[in-house]
Write a structure and sequence with these properties.
It contains four helices and twelve strands. The chain is an alpha+beta fold. The strands form two sheets. Strands 1, 2, 3, 4, 5, 6, 9, 10, 11 and 12 form a ten-stranded mixed β-sheet that branches. Strands 7-8 form a two-stranded antiparallel sheet. It is globular, with a radius of gyration of 17 Å. The model has no long low-confidence stretch (mean pLDDT about 95).
Amino acid sequence: MSSTPPILHQDSHVVVFDKPSGLLSVPGIGPQKADCLASRAAAAVDGARIVHRLDRDTSGVILLARDADSHRELSRQFHDREVVKGYQAIVAGRVLGEEGLVDAPMRKDIERPPRHLVDPVAGKSARTGWRVLERMDDPERTRLAFNPETGRSHQLRVHALQIGHAILGDDLYAPPDVVELSDRLLLHAESLVFTHPATGHRMEVRAEVPF
């Protein structure tokens, strides 16, 4: 039996999990990809249903609704960009500067699925703020905070490339030597700020960074 990921917050309207790296948010195609956070959550918490997704290899905070009204309201908050998302990542090399904003529209890479790419003409708006948290040596790498304003698939992984520094362990976008620096993708959803669908209070839920 699959284990239930750690619960960070639970009440009668919402439940928030700390998703492990390597677990799909929703089922993939085929029986071998049936196991996912959505199915584990539904088995453990009455009414739990997915509102947003994290990439399979990204860990951290993921929010689920427990009833239709809460699902509708939380989905609206994500659509209207009222939810504030905070991530940490470790990237290869020494990032120059202290902070910045990547404004690089994205679309699916039709020729190389499941990859995505930057396309200023046909891409959808994708914006990510970044800030240096720590510079490390041997090998040179940098811990970054990412604050995406949009929620495109693989957005942070692709935008890390835009500033010239792939995320460690990224087997889709990083060169082989950077992939080999970690046995997992070093990208973690550290915090999520949203308005509780029943109380109207602003809430922040955090998950400790595991790397």
